[in-house]
Amino acid sequence: MNLPDFRIEKVDVDDPRAVALRAVLDADLDERYRDADAEDSPEVAAKRAEALAVHAEQVVATLLAIDTADTPLGHVILRRLGDEWELKRLVVVAAGRRRGIGTALTAEVVDLARRGGARRVILQSGRMQPESLRVYAAAGFTPIPVYEPYLETMPRSLCFEYVF
């Protein structure tokens, strides 16, 4: 059995490595969804940005996957969204893909939420993120209707839950 060549580390939400990985995710999502978002008004774009924003006071945990050379390869946040627990901002950089990092980060978020008393973990994604959708399905997430704050500005989102 091969042991993972990375570790998962809990960091502050404003850790520079976490911020940098979220910027990588933002650039990737901007590229993937550019055509879909092109017709949006500035008002809709601003509301979408707010829906996607990371609010430090909601963050339960920020996790990084870090390789043996201390290079950050992946990132995810577990946040409280009202009464819900939400997996947010999962990203694995190109050098970390196909190494089980997305799976490990997802499993750690689910475990943290379970230990925190959650009844389920929810998440929002989209059709232009097939790699993420495969990770979520393999982890046991099942489809649910689009929920707020995404319903108004991203009604074609794909949303999922993991029920305990």
Automatic annotation (TrEMBL):
Q: Which keywords annotate this record?
A: Acyltransferase, Transferase
Q: Name one GO molecular function term.
A: acyltransferase activity, transferring groups other than amino-acyl groups
| Matches recorded under SUPFAM superfamilies | Acyl-CoA N-acyltransferases (Nat)
Lineage: superkingdom: Bacteria
Q: Sorted alphabetically, which InterPro entries does this protein's record hold?
A: Acyl_CoA_acyltransferase, Bact_Acetyltransf, GNAT_dom
Pfam annotation, one family = Acetyltransf_1
N-acetyltransferase domain spans which residues? 19-159
What protein name is recorded for this chain? N-acetyltransferase
